Amino acid sequence: MATALAGGLLARGWSPADIALSDASSAPLEPHAARGCFTTTDNRVLLERSDVIVLAVKPQVMSAVLKPLADLAAARRPLVISIAAGIPVASLARWLGGALPVVRAMPNTPALVQAGATGLFASPEVSAAQRAEAEAILGAVGITLWVGDEALIDAVTAVSGSGPAYFFYVMEAMMAAGRELGLDEATARALTLQTALGAAQMAVSADVGPAELRRRVTSPGGTTERAIAAFDDADLKAVFGRALAACAARGTELAEQLGKSD
C-alpha cells in the first residue's frame, strides 16, 4: 500500500524529492530510489526529515516499530497517518510518546490501481491544514471520506476495506456458474469481469441508485427477474448483512487485541 501511495502521488505530479520511504530491507526501496525518492533503512532518519509520516507496517509489529521513535516524534510532532488495520488512535499516540496529531485511515486494495476508497478519522490534535494533507495523500489513489467517530472505522472496514473481496467472491461464483452452463473458462471470465466493470461504471455515473438501476434491467416475467427471485429466496441481502456485521465485529476485536501493548 505504501508503494501504491508513492506511485499515486507521483502520478498526481508530486516531486520525488518530497517523497521518502523507509524499509527494513533495501531491496523493496530500490525502485523508489530509481525514481528519485529518498530512501533509507533507518526509521529515525526518515522521521527527522519528514513532516508527515505514513505508517504502513503490519499491525502486529506496530508497537515495536513506534516505541523507539517516541522521543523524536514527541520533539518533531509530525502528522501521523496510519493505514494499519485494527490499531486505535490512542494506542498509536501512546506508543509515540504523547498526544500527536494522528489520522487513522482505512484504504482498500483498489488503491493499487488508483481506484481506492479510504475512510479517515482524525484525532482532536489534527489541524484543518493537516486534514487537507491527509486527504491529498490518500486521495492520490482514490476517493476519501471522513468519519466523525473512530468506531465507524470498523464499518468502513466492513463496507470498503474488505469489500473488494466480496466482489471478487461474486465474480468467482458467476464464472463457476457460467462454466456449469457450458461456457469455456476464458469466455466466462471475460463476460463476468466486463459485466462487473460496466455495472460499477454505470452505478458511479448514474443519477439514480443501484436499486433503480436493477429495476430497469429486471423486466417483469423476464430472465433477470427469475434470477433476482432466486437471490431473494436465499435471503441474499440478509447474508450480506450478517457478513458485514461479522467483519465489523472482527475489526473491534482486533482493536482491543492489538492496542493493548504497553
Q: Please state the overall shape, judged from the principal axes of the Cα atoms.
A: elongated
Output the CATH class name of the largest domain: Alpha Beta
- The separation of the N and C termini measures 27 Å
**Tally of strands:** 7
- Listing every helix as H and every strand as E from the N terminus to the C terminus, the arrangement reads HEHEHEHHEHEEHEHHHHHH
Describe this entry's structure for a reader:
With 262 residues, this protein is of the alpha/beta class. The protein folds into two domains: 2-157, Rossmann fold, CATH 3.40.50; 163-252, ProC C-terminal domain-like (ProC C-terminal domain-like fold), CATH 1.10.3730. The protein has 13 helices and seven strands. It has helices at residues 2-11, 30-34, 43-48, 62-66, 70-76, 89-95, 128-138, 153-161, 163-180, 185-205, 210-217, 223-233, 236-258, and strands at 20-22, 38-40, 52-55, 79-82, 102-106, 116-122, 142-146. The chain has a five-stranded mixed beta sheet, sandwiched between helices. A two-stranded parallel ribbon has the order 1-2. The radius of gyration is 22 Å and the shape is elongated. The model has no long low-confidence stretch (mean pLDDT 94).
